[in-house]
Amino acid sequence: MVLPLELEVEEGNYPRQEFSVPPSVTAGWDAERIKREREKLEETRQVNTRELIVEDYFIWPVENWEEEGYVSSEYGAERVINHGEPRRHDGIDIAIEGGTPVVAPSCGKVVLAEELLAPGKTVVIDHGLGITSSYLHLSEIKAEAGETISQGEKIGEVGKTGFSTGNHLHWSVHVKDTPVNPELFLEDRGEEILGPFLGER
User: Fold this and answer.
1) pLDDT digits over 24-42, tens only?
2) 181 and which of 53, 75, 81, 172 could share a cystine (Cβ 3.0–4.6 Å)?
3) Residue 98 is part of a domain; what is its CATH number?
């Protein structure tokens, strides 16, 4: 089923962040492996499930993050790392204590659950209709590729594996290969995107 959606696109006003990552974090890294794994992630997000698996609006993947942590990098932020070229942040970084449980914001099917070089320990969930969500830098993975996951089910724990200088969760949502703001799928903001589909159920 395909529903027509009419969305208004507005110019964004995103913050700029500059920070450094010490050479020790990437010491001995293999550029060819990084390239292969980046392509693997891109391919993983091309899943072609023709039906929406989602049954409700998304929830935050880290419970009580507002009391115990904070958003350290917003979606769309312009980031300059080690004085390099500016790049847009394709997700939300939630800084919080290592080991904090990470749960699935919505039901779906796990399509990747493994440790990669730059993203660290990573889980990717297919939510149907080209929508996938990703969880990076985990200290532990508590999900397996191929399993069906329920909303609120634990999929990992916050960590700082991969290209990271501190404990945090990188949470991103893609529609095919296009990153979108994960907050647009939450109940207080998801009416335009998920609302028409959920209303048809």
Assistant:
1) 888 888 999 999 999 999 9
2) 75
3) 2.70.70.10
